[in-house]
Design a protein that fits this description.
Elements lengths: L4 E5 L7 H13 L3 E5 L4 H9 L3 E6 L10 H11 L3 E6 L7 H13 L2 E4 L2 H8 L11 E3 L16 H11 L3 E6 L9 H12 L4 E6 L9 H11 L6 E3 L6 H9 L3 E4 L10 H8 L4 E4 L11 H8 L3 E4 L5 H12 L8 H16 L6
Parallel strand pairs: 1-2, 1-3, 3-4, 4-5, 5-6, 7-8, 7-10, 8-9, 10-11, 11-12
Helix pairs in contact: 3-4, 6-9, 7-12
């Protein structure tokens, strides 16, 4: 009999990628899962645990400073009640050390560890903590966190972008939160290069700045000014509706990402952009096996939806790739079918060795 799960979520209205994954995981498990807000009340959580076979934590959690004890106590309660504890780790060494300390009690109590990418599994395996923990570990393919094939809904931002395109301006895009490790500012450098080469270009960032990093937004717009891109850059802020995102994606000519670690399977924002039907230019993975477990990434690359540039490609090379991608031909996959297949793979692996 396949296990029943309690998937812990937060009460956040604006969801990050990890939070979105938690909620979508519960949906994918269907009748085999229920959700509970972490720290919402001992009695309610205890009853939810009693009705489940396993409790699933996704880390890093939202508002972690307010959940210093809740996650560990919930995991301990689950083990005392004879339930399994499953920890899905989307990050590890990249986390602030204080966050890792908060997560450690739950990780130590876990029967099964699930990693969002082989890089995270390797990071964890190289730590002293790894030797103290279960060997029941698996890597899963992370899907995009937006609904596939929705009807686009116009917004002020999408209308402005369509006006730019109608006037002959090429729109370079990026989807997802804006923060230093994502190197979103390098897309501005690509835009400046294209502009210098005589291309009329604009840039849209469909997302918001990460809260708690006080200087990120100011530094970003200072760079916009320094590169002469004023009136060419739009930052939408958090976009709640998938239909609104689809309207913005519809106005983009080419998406562009330049990651310090190259493309990895954790970049759900790249998947979402590619499944919109628009080409995506991104630097190649640093490690050859980074995408081996993720059939959808491999297929999107093989069919020309994702255009890889060399891992250490410079700005001029990326700008050239953007122009080439804009006019390239590619097949468009059925996003709904591909994402459904990914979730089947995820739930199969989550169920443990017996299911594999």
């Amino acid at each position: 009999m396949r296990p029943k799960y309690l998937v812990l979520i937060s009460a956040a209205a604006e969801t990050c990628g990890v939070e979105a994954f938690s909620r979508l995981l519960a949906e994918a498990l269907g009748g085999r899962a229920r959700t509970a807000v972490l720290g919402s009340g001992f009695g309610a959580v205890r009853r939810a645990i009693a009705a489940s076979d396993a409790v699933v934590f996704n880390f890093p959690i939202v508002a972690w400073k307010k959940k210093l004890l809740a996650s560990g106590l919930t995991a301990l309660l689950a083990r005392v009640m004879g339930r399994d504890v499953v920890s899905v780790l989307h990050e590890w060494l990249a986390l602030d050390w204080k966050r890792r300390i908060v997560l450690m009690p739950v990780v130590l109590l876990s029967n099964r560890l699930v990693f969002s990418a082989p890089e995270i599994a390797a990071e964890f395996s190289g730590t002293r903590l790894s030797g103290l923990l279960t060997r029941d570990r698996v890597v899963i393919p992370i899907p995009p966190n937006i609904a596939p094939e929705v009807v686009p809904r116009p917004t002020v931002h999408s209308a402005r972008l369509q006006e730019m395109r109608a006037a002959g301006r090429m729109i370079l895009g990026q989807f997802g939160s804006i923060y230093p490790k994502k190197q979103s500012g390098l897309v501005l450098d690509v835009a400046a290069r294209l502009l210098g080469d005589g291309h009329d270009v604009g840039v849209v960032f469909a997302g918001s700045f990460i809260k708690g990093m006080d200087d990120v937004e100011a530094q970003f717009f200072a760079r916009v000014e320094a590169l002469g891109l004023r009136d060419r850059v739009i930052v939408t802020g958090f976009v709640a509706g998938d239909d609104e995102l689809a309207g913005i994606f519809e106005a983009v000519d080419v998406f562009c990402y330049i990651f310090a670690e190259g493309l990895t399977a954790r970049r759900g924002s790249v998947l979402a952009a590619a499944l919109s039907g628009k080409p995506v230019v991104v630097n190649a993975p640093e490690h050859d096996d980074a995408l081996a477990h993720h059939r959808l990434f491999l297929r999107l690359i093989a069919e020309g939806q994702i255009h890889l540039v060399p891992f250490a490609a410079d700005i001029p090379a990326i700008a050239e790739a953007v122009i080439a991608a804009k006019s390239s031909a590619h097949s468009i996959l059925s996003a709904e079918a591909e994402i459904a297949t990914l979730w089947q793979d995820i739930t199969h692996r989550l169920d443990g060795p017996a299911a594999r």
